[in-house]
């Protein structure tokens, strides 16, 4: 697992960035989604992959007994997923409106504000 | 629990909720929009006084002791920024009342405006790096809506670039936070400051520093990551451009200054030198871009990039005086830049265009407006005795003290070019006679403005306020600079910050 995960995450980052550099706005959205997921997986891996108990304190004890999983990365990812979902929903609608307005899904036709 | 720390977040939140509840009553929306911003300004000033009197303030949310819970911290730098958010929020809210069209008002303009203010204040006050990410996202989603609200073609095209690059920046920021947690095992910035230099992987920490630099660099629009800014800042209504220019890139700069004075100070000869180099390139790229523009707001947007370079220069030099210069520069730039963008709205109202080639004759027709442009424009260029002069003076003095002659030469040269850009806008928009072809349309627009009694006066009120402040900051630069110096001292000696957050534990 520890060897596999970095490769999976790296491939996701590469795929996300590759899609971002395409001209189609649909691929742009897909790229952003994949990039967000890659970041989430990375937090998960950086918090150490352990097969352990949930970090619950048994009654009578002051700290969890034995090995336990770190709950912080999971909380971070949960937050990041929710934020990513909201932002991506907005981006989808934006791209849809832009497509209606411009009549094309090609980013190269959306350069009127660049010059 | 310190109330001053929580109010700058609570007031905009409550205002936004009330605005959502009064969705259909336009008058109430306008009143609430201005009142909420005024309350935020008062709270910001309260926080600033409190921090000045009692030193750095910290509050543990939900009473979880640091570093386990989320901490809100206000040192002088944060408090200054929050007070500025209040000031700019108030100015732009008043301006919005007279300039935002009814269809945008009907779709919740003021509510998102206040959510934006909440996100910005939250980012300035948080002491937790993941929480900083969350506030960035709050701020971003509100700015996305404000940018795209109205749905004009230019807005949507600009918004696609803005949204994409900011989301890439967020993904990088999140990546960096994840790795940081893996390396240090904590997310509280004060705790990180203590633990980071003890980790066994100094190379990893420097890599992380650069990852943060790139993430914040995109938000702050530094060279070569600034392309989203001139593609989007001139597309929304003027009030939105103004609040973006005043506050959003400053959040990127703030975050950069915070992490590079608190967390990543292990290898300044590498990281801070890189910042200095990028600062110089940003100045040059921005001002050259501004020289080539014919649209009023695009010229200002490029100019903005160039000034981001000055704010970074102080961080790159990394001395007390240099950071004081940066803080002073931020104070000056927030006021001046917002004002310049607000003025483009007035000239557009008077002449019906943002195109410098179509503008002209404004000095003859409206000398008052011309004077109001003159003050911030030449303050931006650094003409004494206006505020920009002292900001640049401090930075250049710090550069000379540190014997960094290349950056000093760049800063001076770019200062001259800034003057050229401003003089060019002055000559095109105000000095030259009005182009003959546009006279008839200009008269029509004049008629339209005249039929809206009080409209122009409401537009001018915040501009006059900010212009007067620019002059005041220039004339009584000493107390303001003393404030900036103390903020810089706190940034240079993070012990006080760490002590305030972690208490006796350090």
Question: What is the topological layout?
Answer:
The complex is a heterodimer of chains A (115) and B (506).
Chain A: H1 4-20, H2 25-46, H3 71-102
Chain B: H1 3-21, H2 26-54, E1 57-60, E2 71-74, H3 76-99, H4 102-106, H5 109-125, H6 129-148, H7 153-184, H8 189-195, H9 202-220, H10 228-232, H11 238-262, H12 268-291, H13 296-317, H14 320-351, H15 362-365, H16 367-380, H17 387-401, H18 405-431, H19 439-450, H20 455-475, H21 477-492, H22 495-502
Antiparallel strand pairs in B: 1-2
Helix pairs in contact in B: 1-2, 1-5, 2-3, 2-5, 3-5, 3-11, 3-14, 3-20, 5-6, 6-7, 6-11, 7-9, 8-22, 9-11, 11-13, 11-14, 12-13, 12-18, 13-14, 13-17, 13-18, 14-16, 14-17, 14-20, 14-21, 16-18, 16-20, 17-18, 17-20
Characterize the structure shown.
The complex is a heterodimer of chains A (about 120) and B (about 500). Chain A has about 120 residues and is mostly helical. Chain A has a single domain (about 5-50, about 70-110), classed as Helix Hairpins, CATH 1.10.287.3510. Helix content of chain A is about 60%, strand content about 0%. Chain A contains 3 helices and no strands. In chain A, helix 1 packs antiparallel against helix 2 and helix 2 packs antiparallel against helix 3 (about 70-100). The longest helix of chain A is centred in the last third of the chain and has 32 residues, at about 70-100. Chain A starts with a helix and ends in a 13-residue tail after the last helix. The model of chain A has no long low-confidence stretch (mean pLDDT about 85). Chain B is mostly helical and about 500 residues long. Chain B has a domain at about 270-495. Chain B is about 80% helix and about 0% strand. Chain B has helices at about 5-20, 25-55, 75-100, 100-105, 110-125, 130-150, 155-185, 190-195, 200-220, 230, 240-260, 270-290, 295-315, 320-350, 360-365, 365-380, 385-400, 405-430, 440-450, 455-475, 475-490, 495-500; strands at about 55-60, 70-75. A two-stranded antiparallel ribbon of chain B has the order 1-2. In chain B, helix 8 (about 190-195) packs across helix 22 (about 495-500) and helix 13 (about 295-315) runs parallel beside helix 17 (about 385-400). The radius of gyration of chain B is 22 Å and the shape is globular. The two termini of chain B are about 20 Å apart. Classes of the chains: A mainly alpha (about 120), B mainly alpha (about 500). The interface between A and B is large, with 39 and 38 residues.
């Amino acid at each position: 697992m520890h060897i596999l995960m970095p490769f999976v995450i790296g491939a996701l980052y590469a795929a996300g960035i590759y899609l971002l550099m395409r001209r189609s706005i649909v691929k742009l959205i897909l790229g952003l989604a994949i990039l967000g997921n890659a970041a989430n997986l990375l937090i998960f891996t950086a918090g150490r992959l352990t097969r352990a108990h949930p970090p619950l304190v048994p009654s009578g004890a002051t700290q969890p007994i034995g090995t336990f999983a770190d709950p912080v990365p999971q909380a971070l990812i949960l937050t990041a997923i929710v934020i990513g979902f909201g932002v991506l929903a907005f981006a989808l609608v934006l791209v849809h409106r832009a497509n209606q307005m411009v009549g094309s899904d090609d980013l190269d036709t959306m350069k009127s504000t660049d010059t | 629990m310190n109330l001053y720390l929580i109010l700058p977040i609570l007031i905009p939140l409550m205002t936004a909720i009330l605005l959502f509840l009064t969705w259909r009553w336009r008058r109430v929306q306008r009143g609430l929009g201005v009142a909420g911003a005024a309350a935020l300004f008062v709270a910001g000033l309260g926080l600033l006084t409190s921090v000045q009197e009692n030193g750095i303030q910290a509050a543990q949310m939900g009473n979880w002791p640091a570093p386990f819970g989320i901490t809100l911290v206000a040192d002088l730098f944060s408090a200054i920024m929050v007070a500025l958010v209040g000031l700019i929020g108030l100015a732009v809210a008043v301006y919005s009342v007279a300039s935002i069209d009814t269809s945008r008002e009907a779709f919740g303009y003021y509510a998102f405006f206040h959510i934006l203010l909440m996100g910005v204040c939250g980012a300035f006050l948080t002491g937790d790096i993941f929480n900083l990410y969350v506030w960035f996202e709050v701020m971003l989603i509100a700015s996305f809506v404000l940018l795209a609200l109205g749905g004009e073609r230019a807005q949507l095209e600009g918004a696609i670039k803005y949204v994409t690059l900011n989301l890439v920046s967020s993904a990088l920021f999140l990546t960096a936070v994840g790795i940081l947690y893996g390396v240090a095992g904590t997310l509280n910035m004060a705790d990180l400051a203590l633990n980071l230099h003890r980790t066994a992987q100094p190379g990893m920490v420097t890599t992380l520093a650069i990852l943060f630099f790139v993430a914040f660099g995109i938000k702050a629009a530094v060279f070569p990551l600034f392309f989203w800014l001139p593609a989007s800042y001139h597309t929304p209504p003027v009030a939105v451009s103004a609040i973006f220019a005043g506050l959003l890139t400053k959040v990127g700069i703030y975050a950069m200054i915070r992490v590079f004075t608190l967390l990543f100070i292990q290898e300044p000869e590498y990281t801070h030198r890189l910042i200095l180099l990028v600062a110089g390139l940003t100045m040059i790229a921005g001002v050259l871009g501004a020289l080539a523009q014919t649209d009023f707001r695009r010229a200002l947007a490029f100019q903005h990039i160039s000034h981001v370079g000055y704010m970074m220069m102080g961080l790159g030099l990394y001395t007390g005086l240099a950071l004081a210069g940066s803080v002073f520069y931020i104070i000056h730039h927030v006021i001046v830049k917002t004002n310049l963008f607000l003025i483009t709205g007035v000239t557009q109202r008077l002449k019906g265009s943002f195109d410098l080639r179509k503008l002209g004759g404004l000095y003859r027709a409206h000398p008052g407006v011309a004077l109001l442009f003159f003050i911030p424009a030449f303050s931006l260029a650094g003409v004494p005795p206006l505020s920009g002069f002292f900001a640049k003076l401090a930075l250049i003095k710090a550069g000379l003290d540190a014997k960094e002659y290349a950056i000093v030469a760049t800063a001076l040269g770019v200062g001259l070019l800034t003057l050229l850009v401003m003089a060019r806008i002055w000559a095109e928009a105000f000095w030259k006679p009005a182009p003959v072809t546009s006279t008839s349309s200009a008269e029509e627009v004049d008629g339209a403005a005249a039929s809206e009694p009080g409209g122009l006066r409401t537009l001018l009120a915040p501009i006059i306020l900010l212009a007067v402040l620019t002059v005041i900051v220039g004339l009584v630069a000493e107390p303001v600079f003393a404030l900036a110096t103390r903020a810089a001292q706190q940034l240079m000696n993070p012990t006080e910050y760490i002590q305030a957050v972690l208490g006796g534990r350090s």
